[in-house]
Model the fold of this input.
Amino acid sequence: MGIASRFEGRELACVRGGRIVFARLAFDVTGGGLLILRGPNGAGKSSLLRVMAGLIAPAHGALIWNGEDADADPVAHRARAAYAGHDDALKPGLTVREHLAFHAALRGADARHLDAALEAFGLTALATTPARLLSAGQRKRAALARLIAAPAPIWLLDEPTNGLDAGAVAKLETAIAAHRGAGGIVVAATHLDFAGAGAATLDLAAMRAA
Amino acid sequence: MNAALALIARDVRLAWRHPHEIVTILAFFVVAASLFPFGIGPEPQILARVAVGIVWVVALLAALMSLERLFQAEADDGSLDLLVGASAPLELLALAKIVAQWLTTAVPLIAAAPVVATMLNLPPEGFGVLMLTLILGTPGLSLFGGIGAALSVGARRGGALLALIVLPLVVPILIFAVAAVDAAIAGLSPRPHLFLLAGLSVFALTLAPFAMAAALRQATE
Amino acid sequence: MNWHRYASPAAFKRFAVRVQPWTAGGALACLGAGLYMALFASPADYQQGESVRIMYVHVPAAWMAMFVYANLALAAAASLVWRHPLADAAGRAIAPIGAAFTLLCLATGSLWGKPMWGTWWVWDARLTSVLILFFVYLAYMALNAAFDDPTRGSRASAVLALVGAVNLPIVKFSVDWWNTLHQPASLTRLDAPAIHSSMLWPLLAMALGYTLLFAYLALIRIRAELIERRLAVLTHAKFAAEPAR
Done:
């Protein structure tokens, strides 16, 4: 992780199904920063996160990483952006540990972060439990543990607290704080307030009315 | 490369833990093939003449059943986002999915083919070549099928659509596979047909990863 | 012609409005002359008799089936490379026209087959290839219409159109080969034999007439597609009651 990492979006526009979700959107987060996306349903929080992850090509504008256009090397951009969406992406027949090991391999990370990932989200005791036996909250924690199993400088979190109890939210806050402490960047779409010192907020509803 | 191997290992492990899926497909293979004698009569000569065609067509339909869920299941649970968002080339990951599908579906179908061929009274000279055509032709089948599966992710009526997309594309595979076995039964050399069949699979290998990757990117967008 | 000049929907509309009457008039004139020559002025075939006249409808329809598919593949490539709505609209608009020509080719082939072969359908190599081309058109149209988001339908069917374009020559080759294997000597083929000028002129007139008819229908349908999309956007804007932008 670079000391002076910086993730920007300039003049971003997103078109879905023939209509404009957002346009002329800009953001700027530096290493250690937390950007909270707010706005009502349909304001484009999820779309913006998917644009940031490189899953959706913006209709206009560019993502900039450390001053360089991320689109110039999309593979490198996908490697640095870890996306945790609404869906848990868990296969009923695989254990929690197998999911994390697969995800690490998929993203080219080695297996040494698996124990830390299980630990961080209180899953150590559930490591060998198949996903079909997990509760909704446990599933969400397993999905979030991927962030630690395969380290990446940018975390993109879509409603990460959905389905989590207070204890699990605290674990997520700890993980986010540790990631930011190490110079990482977090962008999260959420309704809840989570404790994040120095968090910036981007209100998509306000963008839209402007 | 490690990512692709991990994906193959994951899919094979999943298939191993949910054996009922392949068992259902194998059952379909045998049951559907056994319907033909009721439709066209049990005369051994007639069955012998059409046995290869039936084995191939029914194997094709059975393979389509497993292809229908190949990428749709990944899209449904959100895994597709992680695959498309991974730093490994999506072409390679799509190919890994096809390799796993081939290992977990085509290999069992190939293993079951002699049983079905025996029931349909395939002449003994045809067995070896039938197995060879299946080994050489099913990779092409899986690859073309993968294009259809990737294109129909998120589509309404995915299953019927998949068949409509894939079946015209695999006509050449069917033609050369059946011709090879017919040649062997007639005492001719099946080699030219087998080469053409292998060529079709290689052609599919050069085309399918790119088409699948393009389709999967569209599906997550 | 600089294609990009016509790539904006508004410029395309001006172009289409100007060209459309000419294509309609030309199509009528060519098809009228072609049909007159085909049905009355040209001689009957010494072998096939009067039924050879079906050829003048059938053979150009087969040409059009392939010509329209080539256009479809070009529109598909443009749709994937430039992501231009006009290319999407073109693909969606011309596929049914191509399918209709293909169906016309199959139907006239079948009509011709009854007196010549004594049966409505024969797995003749050419007819079989055209049948598979028809299936690919059907798959294209089904895939195009299979998604809630029309853009996704356009992109997915564009990939299919290109895969089909690469694969169809192989299908054609394998079907030809399969046919020679199973039917050693096809007696009378439904294609243009050694052409005499009395047969060539009606054939060319029909082909030109079909092409102009295709152009006319394509222009109308592309305009309709563009209007429909515009309408969808406006309707959505109205019901979403967006703040003024």
In short: The first strand of chain A starts at residue 6 and ends at 16. Helices of chain A lie at 45-53, 74-80, 96-106, 114-120, 136-149, 166-181, 204-209.
